[in-house]
UniProtKB/TrEMBL annotation:
Keyword Kinase: no
Family membership noted in the UniProt record: Belongs to the class-I pyridoxal-phosphate-dependent aminotransferase family.
Domain (Aminotransferase class I/classII large): residue spans on this chain: 27-394
Cofactor: pyridoxal 5'-phosphate
Name of the protein in its database record: Aspartate aminotransferase
Catalysed transformations (reactions): L-aspartate + 2-oxoglutarate = oxaloacetate + L-glutamate
NCBIfam families: PRK09257.1
GO BP annotations, alphabetical order: amino acid metabolic process
Keywords linked to the UniProt accession: Aminotransferase, Pyridoxal phosphate, Transferase
Quaternary structure and partners: Homodimer.
Something else known: In eukaryotes there are cytoplasmic, mitochondrial and chloroplastic isozymes.
Amino acid sequence: RFEGIAMAPPDPILGVSEAFRADTDEKKLNLGVGAYRTEELHPYVLKVVKKAEQLMLERGENKEYLPIEGLAAFNKATAELLLGADNPVIKESRIATVQGLSGTGSLRLAAALVERYFPGSKVLLSSPTWGNHKNIFNDAGVPWSEYRYYDPKTVGLDFEGMIADIKAAPDGSFILLHGCAHNPTGIDPTPEQWEKIADVIHEKNHIAFFDVAYQGFASGSLDEDASSVRLFAARGMELIVAQSYSKNLGLYAERIGAINVVCSSAEAASRVKSQLKRLARPMYSNPPVHGARVVANVVGDPALFGEWKAEMEMMAGRIKNVRQKLYDSLMAKDKSGKDWSFILKQIGMFSFTGLNKAQSDNMTNKWHVYMTKDGRISLAGLSLAKCEYLADAIMDSYHN
Ligand code: PMP
């Protein structure tokens, strides 16, 4: 009975926010969860989202159920944003797109597809990866293992290890790749490295499974951030791609994203789509409409689309400025000769500091800086004004 149920451990990422809320110290800083904050460290609703919502109110749209696959205008817009509207995959209707419950729900739906139609196939995850990937595949009953990714010696990519592990995986495995702005490391392959990754995946008959949670947020350009996925699509490879609008449109709580399966024919795509719908129906029946309308309105209106891009550049730019300031502060304070330039090379919301668990604990317990225990800090939750303080905390934790 219920008396026999044990307490679950706190979530390694969302649990950090819970601990932060309980801390009463004024200096406290939440660098745990990846959510964009303003320079004043307030949550930010994009102006373009408010405009789209205003339009939606004026139109007085209803709240009837969406179809299982979601809002048609959203599904069209999201696939086009991902691949580019003139991509042959779209022209030839070789893509099955289903609206999902943001990135997480989309990944979970794809995991259910893998479990049902590729029983026993393994998913390979980067080491390290976003912590929830493991939960998602565990809960879906999909076996997974890891490929080397992060090299602590260089605080960079272990490319040789990555390629060797993808080669060593059983033929026909699913290789989970972060489309851009790898979480938690902030380290992405170069375009040449992406080509080699695609070569090996092709040779081994694997299927690339992209998680795209930061399109437009990494470089500030939607097209540039989708170039990894587009490179694979241009080779005619079959793909799975999960998308999220949590970060790039700031729609965290609206739970809006999509799962895309790129197939070899239009017929296969429509069969895959029918099966995705069949999987979704008993799980949540159909997705929520609000976020889907926001995305469809923003992408479908040239003026709003332009405003969105400008706001994304602004957000990506603020994070880059903070990154630079943190680096400058660390270099000014650190007399040990340590090279902190890896911070500047990292991409996206996060910085992987190289701090271990004990050092991360010191950051929190002594300095009230909340971060995940793998040494990841969210620069989106940092302001220029707090960089000096954070650098002091890192110095103390790193060198003592
Ligand atoms: N994948 C990665 C790599 C992420 O970092 C995130 C957000 N932290 C997600 C997926 C999904 O987030 P959401 O469910 O809010 O879209």
